[in-house]
Each structure stands twice: as C-alpha cells, then as structure tokens.
Structure prediction request, 183 residues.
Amino acid sequence: MADKYLENVRFLVVDDNMFVRTTVRLVLQALGTRDIDEVSNGAAAIKMLERREPDIIIIDWEMEPVNGIELVKKIRGAQDTPLAFLPIIMLTGHSEVERVKQARDVGVNEYVIKPFSAQGLFTRIQAVIERPRPFVKIEGYFGPDRRRKDMAFEGDDKRKPSDDDALIGTDASDQSKSETPAA
Prediction:
C-alpha cells in the first residue's frame, strides 16, 4: 500500500477503546507512519491539540466526557487558527445514513465504519491528502465542501451566497467514489 508515503505525516488517534487505538496505530505504522499520538477521549484531544498539531486526526464517535461530534465542532469552530482546517477522519461503529450525514454536517472530511480494513483506512487517508475538498464558510457551517461531485442541474440556482459565504481551499473537481459511506 504505502511504504514511505505516510512517513512524515503526524496523526492523532482519539478513541476510548485501547484495542482500537492499538489496532489503528499498528495499521498506521505498517503504512509507514512514525509519528502517532493517542488519547482516549475528546477532552484529552483538545489538550493535546493545544500542545501539538497533527496533520490528520482520526476520531471515534462515542466517547466521554467529549464525544467525537463535539470534538469536531470544537475544531471547526476555531476558525481563527490552522486547526480549523485539520483533516478529520471519523472511525466509528455507526453505519446509519443519518449518522454519516450528521458527521458530514459538522465538518468531518471522511468516514470509516468499524470494523475497518487497512485498505479502507488508507483510502480515506489518501483522499484527505491527495483530493482535499475546499473549505466553505456559510451561515451555520464551516468545513470541507459537503458536495463530492458536480452534478448536472437544470433550472435556477437557488444557492445564492451571502456576503459572509466563502469558498476556501483547493479545487475539488477530482472527487471520486469510495468503498465506505462518504462523510
């Protein structure tokens, strides 16, 4: 898959289950990653982010005292810092479409369902590195563009940006489908 591809990428893994953290760490190490921090909940992640900024964060949904959704909201809410643009991969056992949409709507970049494969996780990591979606700021949302592909549309475009709306980031024209539900 990747020998040196992820060699210089710093990860933060946030999951309350030590077995999952260990499994993710072993997969990342097998992919060539050398720099991996691990914490057991969102509150610990917030403290870690104050000390050390990762390149990519992998977050579980169900944790206490701060769960994954609350953590994503906190990260995306820090719009005056580079942390707001941090690629976030949610790794969770929740496979319901409504959960995937909820994660997407708070600013998760990619979504991986447990149990996961090394290839599935690598595909999501590769997506945030090679095909980053531009960030948008609209009323009530800041995060990666939620649209993954351009679709033909007939009629009037009713999506009128306000003065506060902005498209920030890279060109998202090369978006592809993936094997697990997209955030």
Helices lie at 18-30, 42-51, 68-77, 97-106, 118-130.
